[in-house]
Design a protein that fits this description.
alpha/beta; Helicase, Ruva Protein, domain 3; single chain; 53% helix
Amino acid sequence: MIFRRGRGGASQPKVSLLKERSEAESEPGGEGEGEGLRPPDDTPHGDMAATRKKQSLWDRVRYLLLLTLLWFVLVWAAMADNPLLPFVDAMREQATAASWVFVLLGLELVRQVHFFVSERWARYHRFWTHRVFGGFERFTHRRFKPWTRFRVWRAMIWLFWIAVFALVAGKILDTSPVLALFEAPALLWKALPFLLQIIFLFFVIIIQFVGLFWFLSRGGIDTYMPDDIKTRFRDVWGQDHVVERVKENIVFLEKPQEIEAMGGYVPGGILLWGPPGTGKTLMAEAVAGETGHPYVFVDPGAFIQMFMGIGVLKVKSLFRKLRKLALRYGGVIVFFDEADSLGRRGALAQVGPGGGRPAGAFQSGCHGMSYLSPDTRWQLARDTLADAARTDGASAVSVNGPRPGRNGFFMGGGMNGGGGGDTGTLQALLTELSGLKKPRGFVNRYVRRLLGMKPKPPPKYRILVMMATNMPEALDEALLRPGRIDRIYKVGYPSKAGRVRTYEGYFSKVRHDLTGEDVDKLATITPYATGASIKDLVNEALITAIRDGREVITWADVMKAKQLKSLGPPEGVEYHDRERHATAVHEACHAVVAIRARRHLEIDIATIEKGAEYLGMVASIPVEDQFTQWRSEYQSDILVSLASLAGERMFFGGDSSSGVSGDLESATRVASLMEGYWGMGSTISSHAISNQLGMGTPGAGGKGAKEAEKEMRRALADRIEDQLTALLKQVERMLEEDRAAVLAVAHALETHKTLQGEDVLAVIEGQEGPLVDGRIYTDPAFRRALEAYHQAALAAHRGRTPVQLTLPASPEPPVRDSARTPSSSRTPSP
């Protein structure tokens, strides 16, 4: 607001000056007539016909009727006191005793006449509005502050109603109004028992509802005192970069003056998002443990209730408790786990029932594409989901299993519609996070105002709100804005160094004989392990050791636990010899090509044990943490995919099984993305953008456009087919050169059912592995035995008869120096 100096040095607000100017200009012929700004709802100054708005008939006569009715009530009361008094005499008596009613009737009549004239005479209306009442308003606005005017007006209203009460009470008690004010408390005291009965009945009814809603609003919120939490930042492993950022919030929580003294505000909201099991909840507990403040844990389902409005009550009750704890202990940490269940109103949540992520949209092939890199699997899954979404009402759920995520794990069913608490719950939470805080205390809020004193402002509550979710896209944008959630951190999969630290932390709690090299190797072959999965793996290895009657965890126990967690328990079914050999050859072709052609991944495990969703599997893992994919890597993925088709055709006389269908699908999709989207084919332009912009399709919407689009698709399909054909020929040459290696790996799989990646490499290279001694496969006589067995299996395949030869037995391997091969002798994959 702009001020200027007036007479006597007093500063006047510019608003008042503008009002005075508008009044001066309202005179006929005044300077600036019809120009300048006007207040809202004001008429132009040059309009001489401006009058008061006409009243309705009811507004004009309602107070007259009310006062007339009051006078007749007084006449009736006089006749009730004296039944012998005639009506006319009662009217004469009340005309003298209740003359004040006629005074009020006269004043009201004069007021209505004034209004009647103002509705028809503009000059008369402007005189009273701008000169009389306007001058009084200007005087009060100039002499009194707004708060003073408010208190004076409130006092006048109280005095008016007290006077009305005194007049009515005096008439009822037949005494003067002043004495009636002193006698009224005695009457109230006599009527107090009856009033208490009414109040008691009223509260009985209210308490029933209050008790019901209070009972329903309990639960779901746990409070931990500082001594109850033993977690510290040293217990959070593998997320050092996030821990450092969170530590800053602790500094601001404990020393807020450092930022507030410079005009800033303390960040009060943190969102931790990332895959499940990465340590979000553990990090919140560590924050509470480090600060020594109370820690309030909000259960994800606390705000999901049968009745509408219960969630709002819970939010209000929660923040009331938080404010009390913050004042008592100097700060409090509240943690909302699975925040998407409460704040679900984002883009991902705008779907109907069943309209969320499909519960398993892609897993094809004999082993669910586990031999592919995580990025390749993610691209294939994403395109499958897009294709499924474009179908006309068709289900997007694949019968082949769960969808592989970019992180290498299979991510199953998604969100089925609305989910969390009602909208009012979210709105209540948004209001509590950033709304105005009321002054505290009954005396502060009401008594001080009653005495004309300003309430004390509310204190600054040191509340650190932490939320965790694995679906940040489902959260409402209003919840994520600065001022509510000031900092958003991704708690992703730990790096290799973080996994090593996590493994060391959990292995330090149990007895084991793993070396530092073993732990480093374990961190390498579990690239997307989380803190929770690492803890579970170590625990499963301990259970395996206890089951075998040992107290010390060995490397073999860890590998068994890893296999169980990765693949699940095998079904225990037995293939007949012909199908067992075909499955082993199929997986051996994948394994040999993966070893020979691919360098960015190494084989983790190969198995022909039937699982719930596969017949056999060759799973691969990255050699190192990698965030960029290259053309050569995608081509090697296609080579590994086509190895099953090329191998079955080569080893089974041109025949092939239906198990290669998923492999061909994955190879075709990767080749299509390379050729039309990623610029990794014979052309550079993006097929997606060409379709979107309509380039190359003249006459859009006509027959020529459709023919041009068909031609583009046909040309793209030809290029994809040419690329796949060339790569298939390359795979065929590789398998022909490594035919002996394929049969060797197939024999090892048939013998041992499951092989680690090091054993697969040992078989191919003819070296000694942890489980399999690959040197036996370099023996020419044993290779001829393997070829003879394969020919017998081929003949049985053609004639659908049992295999006439038995599986060749492995020669006795040389005696090793120790019962366990040291980690240094395990040759890593290239």
